[in-house]
């Protein structure tokens, strides 16, 4: 009985369409083979390759079970340019072209393929690629065909849509790579590093002097407003009062908003509980305080030891910490230096030991829920809170001495006393 088994076996080795049809001994099976090939292509299971003679140039590899654009001929007179969202990187030993606009990637096998990408940066037709890279015209056209199918190039005369031109490269890339659907990387809790020990729930203490903090008063000692009332009154307050926040109020604020409640041992390392939620109960965020004015506390840089409810002094004011305060003042619209600048950092390996593809997105979500917690507690305590939209991670690394690949700043939050509002009779 004649079957397509020889053709399917040959397909795993890589053949041209003509060579694949030659494996079918009965011509009547050819339509069935082409139908099967189309179905495999529709499910993103077929790789397409451009070659120069017998030398592979590049391979189009569909991702996430999605096909690239249907194969079509490329007009030799059409000028093309590389998409501004396309990027070339190394993945193990392979050179890979990717784009957040594409559901495929291109493996570049030959230096002439990389040279063609460089030429397309300024726009080119197939003959330009052939002349500048040493490829023959057909190989240049085949390579362009892969780039067109993968949405890595656009016509030279194309006008970017209003929606697309408002996207920055890094934002669109981050969006696509931290969610499912446009990549084939492991996603979620995959525990990819069994050879490494997970970080402990609490960051080990350093050698700095610790300043003990008083806990927040209990419910029997202090009546707080309802949640609805606090949420309704929450505001970003950029100007701080003449009398600074004091150590007792600062300690009560940190106790209510950010203290470590308990450690939960598991077979996958330590989990943690704090007043705000965190994915996987891993709680990778840390708080550092750049103190400018706080009654009862010296100026300088401190780390909040959430498990001990204490501040560890990391250093006296220095050029980097002073610059952080000045930068915060500028971010606050020149309202003056914050009395206390809270710098939120992430111990990335707390998350990356377990999760893949979504780690940094998860960090930013955690920063958001921490911001809201800080806002609500500060509002309830009559303090002046204000989250900031960005900061200088390199400047904080200089001030703290931390390796930014291990722990880096991911958020900033200004805190201080409120101005005394005039009495209205």
The first-to-last residue Cα distance is 101 Å
Q: Mind summarizing the main beta sheet?
A: 7 strands, antiparallel
* CATH-defined fold name of the largest domain: NADH Oxidase
Number of helices: 14
Rg of Cα set: 29 Å
Oligomeric state of the chains in view: single chain
Q: What's the architecture of the largest domain, going by CATH?
A: 3-Layer(aba) Sandwich
Number of domains: 2
The residue ranges in which pLDDT falls below 50 over 5 or more consecutive positions are: none
Per CATH, the superfamily of the largest domain is NADH Oxidase
Produce a short descriptive summary:
By secondary structure, the protein is α+β, with helices and mostly antiparallel strands. Helices cover 32% and strands 22% of the residues.
Give the SSE layout.
Elements: H1 5-11, H2 17-22, H3 30-42, E1 48-52, E2 55-62, E3 80-82, E4 87-91, E5 94-98, E6 104-108, H4 111-120, H5 126-133, H6 137-149, E7 153-155, H7 162-165, H8 169-177, E8 188-189, E9 210-212, H9 227-233, H10 247-258, E10 262-266, E11 269-273, E12 285-291, E13 300-305, E14 310-315, H11 319-331, E15 340-347, H12 349-352, E16 355-356, H13 359-380, E17 383-388, H14 393-400, E18 407-417
Antiparallel strand pairs: 1-2, 2-6, 3-7, 4-5, 5-6, 8-16, 9-14, 10-11, 12-13, 12-15, 13-14, 15-18, 17-18
Helix pairs in contact: 4-5, 5-6, 9-13, 10-13, 11-14
């Amino acid at each position: 009985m004649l079957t397509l088994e020889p053709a399917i076996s040959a397909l795993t080795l890589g053949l041209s369409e003509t060579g694949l049809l030659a494996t079918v001994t009965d011509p009547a099976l050819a339509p069935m083979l082409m139908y099967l090939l189309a179905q495999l292509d529709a499910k993103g299971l077929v790789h397409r390759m451009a070659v120069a003679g017998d030398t592979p140039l590049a391979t189009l590899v569909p991702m996430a079970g999605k096909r690239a654009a249907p194969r079509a001929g490329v007009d030799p007179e059409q000028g093309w340019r590389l998409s501004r969202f396309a990027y070339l990187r190394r993945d193990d030993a392979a050179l890979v072209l990717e784009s957040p606009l594409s559901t495929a990637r291109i493996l570049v096998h030959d230096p002439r393929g990389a040279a063609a990408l460089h030429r397309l940066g300024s726009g080119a037709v197939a003959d330009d690629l052939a002349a500048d890279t040493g490829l023959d015209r057909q190989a240049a056209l085949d390579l362009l065909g892969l780039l067109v199918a993968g949405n890595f190039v656009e016509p030279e005369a194309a006008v970017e849509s209003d929606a697309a031109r408002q996207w920055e490269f890094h934002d669109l890339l981050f969006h696509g790579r931290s969610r499912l659907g446009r990549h084939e990387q492991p996603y979620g809790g995959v525990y990819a590093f069994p050879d490494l020990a997970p970080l402990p729930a609490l960051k080990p203490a350093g050698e700095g002097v610790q300043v003990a903090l008083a806990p927040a008063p209990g419910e029997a000692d202090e009546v707080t407003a309802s949640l609805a009332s606090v949420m309704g009154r929450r505001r970003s307050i950029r100007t701080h009062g003449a009398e600074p926040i004091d150590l007792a109020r600062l300690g009560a604020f940190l106790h209510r908003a950010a203290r470590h409640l308990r450690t939960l041992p598991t077979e996958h390392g330590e989990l943690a509980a704090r007043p705000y939620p965190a994915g996987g109960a891993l709680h990778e965020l840390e708080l550092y305080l750049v103190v400018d004015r706080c009654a009862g506390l010296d100026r300088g840089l401190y780390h909040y030891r959430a498990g001990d409810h204490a501040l560890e002094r990391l250093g006296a004011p220095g050029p980097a910490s002073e610059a952080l305060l000045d930068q915060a003042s500028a971010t606050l619209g020149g309202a003056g230096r914050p009395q206390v600048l809270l710098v939120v950092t992430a111990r990335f390996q707390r998350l990356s030991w377990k999760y893949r593809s979504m780690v940094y997105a998860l960090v930013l979500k955690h920063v958001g829920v921490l911001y809201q917690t800080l806002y609500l507690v500060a509002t309830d305590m009559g303090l002046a809170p204000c989250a900031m939209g960005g900061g200088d991670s390199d400047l904080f690394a200089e001030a703290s001495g931390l390796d930014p690949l291990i722990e880096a700043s991911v958020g900033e939050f200004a805190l201080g006393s409120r101005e005394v509002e005039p009495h209205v009779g």
